[in-house]
Amino acid sequence: MAYRTALFKMHIVAVLFGITGVFGKLIASSAFVLVFGRALFALLAISLLALKMRRLPWHQLSAKRIGALCCAGLLLAAHWVTFFIAVKVGGIAVGTLGFASFPAFVALFEWLFLREKLSVIDFLLMILVTLGLVLVTPSFDFADSATEGLLWGTLSGLVYALLAIANRQAAAKISGVQVCWWQNLSVMLCMLPFAAGSLSGVSLTDWFWIACLGLICTGLAYSLFIDSLMVLKARVAALIIALEPIYAIFVAWLLFSETPSLRMVLGGALIIFTVSWVGMRKVT
Fold this sequence. Notes:
Blueprint: H1 3-18, H2 20-26, H3 31-53, H4 63-90, H5 92-99, H6 102-113, H7 120-136, H8 145-170, H9 176-195, H10 204-229, H11 234-241, H12 244-256, H13 262-283
Helix pairs in contact: 1-10, 1-12, 2-4, 3-4, 3-9, 3-10, 4-5, 4-8, 4-9, 5-8, 5-12, 6-7, 6-8, 7-13, 11-13
């Protein structure tokens, strides 16, 4: 694959990750139904990818390792549910920027759970991301839907940070396809009891958007991500993926006229710049 082609594919991945929130806005069904459907269609797409790569999901995996992957999948389910609640309650821009704070939580949890020392850069990351969240906050009234959405988005980032820590143990030295397959299976199964009662009432339009979410924003995006990493360095990929909130906000502005305020732009720019800068330093 040519370098420019890999760059283009990685930007497509960032766009697909960014428009995840757009689908959350388009789909009228509850977050539980949405997450169940996303995992179902993603599982189908990843199964096809596994067949193409000739790597069965259970190949050379112990029952203990499969159990660990499924437990990590519960965190993935919680992350997706809280993220889509954030988007439905507070809007795409607010929910996405709240989630973008997750690298600061990763640094904090590595210190708390893994006893890894915090560097000056880590402290700076947490301070600047916190300042960015304060700027993004529309008001400090918890009755404000946008503020509530930001809290849900930040909670989504916190849960995702826990997932990242869990995957360091559960997914070490395992094919990414296998990790994604087992975790999506876990998400689908744990969401089934919460979504089952509502599935019969899901409209065909919602099923169409849910299928797009699972097949395009998860299955296709993951496939492109793997292909691009065969050519791109990790620091380049990290920098491009950090642009995800920008793509999300731009698409939300085009489709839903969600125009961010100046404070939101400044806060979002601070979060994105900080995460990109720290991410590049850590992978070089």
